[in-house]
Protein: Zinc metalloprotease
Organism: Umboniibacter marinipuniceus
Amino acid sequence: MVELIQTILIALLTLGILVSIHEFGHFWVARRCGVKVLKFSIGFGPDLLRYTAKDGVVYSLSALPLGGYVRMAGEHDDESRDSEPHEMFDAKTVWQRIAIVGAGPAINLLLAVIVFFGLSLRGEVGLAPVIGSYEPATPAASRDLSAGQEIYAVDGEETSTWRDVSLALLDRVGESGLVTFTVGYPESTLTYDVSVPIEGFLSEGEVSDPIEELGIKPWLPPLKLEVSSVQAESPAEIAGLLAGDVIETTDSESFERFSQWSDYIQAHADQEVMLGLVRNGEALNLIIIPKESELNNERRVLLGVSLMQQSWPEEMVRRYHYSIPEALVNGVDRTVETSIFIVKSIAKMITGDISTKNLSGPITIAKVASDSAANGIVSWLSLLALLSVSLGVLNLLPIPVLDGGHLLFYFIEAVKGSPVNERVQQYGMQAGMALVLLVTLLAIYNDILRL
């Protein structure tokens, strides 16, 4: 229950910031253009909190926190009777109306630039894209990729970290053809291109890890399971494990990755497991019986030990430090790259190259926001920037009801010199409302399936 409340509160905070910023963009530009603002609301439906300022603007927090709005004079005749003609939204020039409507998405993109800029100032750390192992995903795939190679570029795009590799591969989601890797061995100056075939890459179901999908596993330092502490009255204490013990084998098996070892333990609840240890330079065996217990509101099979965090060789770590101008450029670049990726993904979803199962609604957003907050402020800020870009780009789609739909009508008006026919606008609004409602329901349906 506590975790649920925490998830809801973090989601409300995250969405509240994004919606407030978006609506403030409309609000601020409308005031600059001389439009009388009647109401600034975060959420829809009945007001939970309401404050009327001296200038007559009503600020409210409403019951349904899934959006917000700025109500201006000229939009609802019954509420605009006390306003002067020059204060009406409809009385403004078409370019002023374009500025007012476009300000919402624009300030969301600006927020993303600012957040990415701030994160860049603290520097970035990534891992060198060195291949740990490679198992071709298809019989036709090239076998020229191998362990120990570093990926220097994907389709000509430089890749300094695994994040760069992942982003480059995500750009090919839904496509068929060849992905070209430029690879080489770190100790050599020679590089060469390796082409890996893809067919409808990650087009079915939800998009997963694109690197793993191709059969590539990143290099990891040799697994060292060194015990740092033992929980009282746990299976580990009962078995006799001590801090400083190094687990070398489990039922005579060695594991390359922590996930493999963890999965093995998970599969042996209430069963005897033999641990091969090294203690003070001497080898010994202990029998332990893993027990199912609750951890972070999840049922897990645990030993009751904490393990020492493994360190990475410095040559496998990429560290980046930016000056203020460089951080600003990086903030703009990341916002532009994210915007382009979102637009491409929407286009691929429309053409069927990407499954609609990738649509996410408020439930998934709430869960991701909570998880990112649990991982620290940097993780949460990164998500906030990503969601801000998404909100800005999605609102610019030329769909009536969204800001982009209004902008479409206004740009047509600017070209032809007269407003779009009122009936056409009404039909457009009805169709746009139906489309947005359909997509929203589909996103919520996907959310429910993920629970």
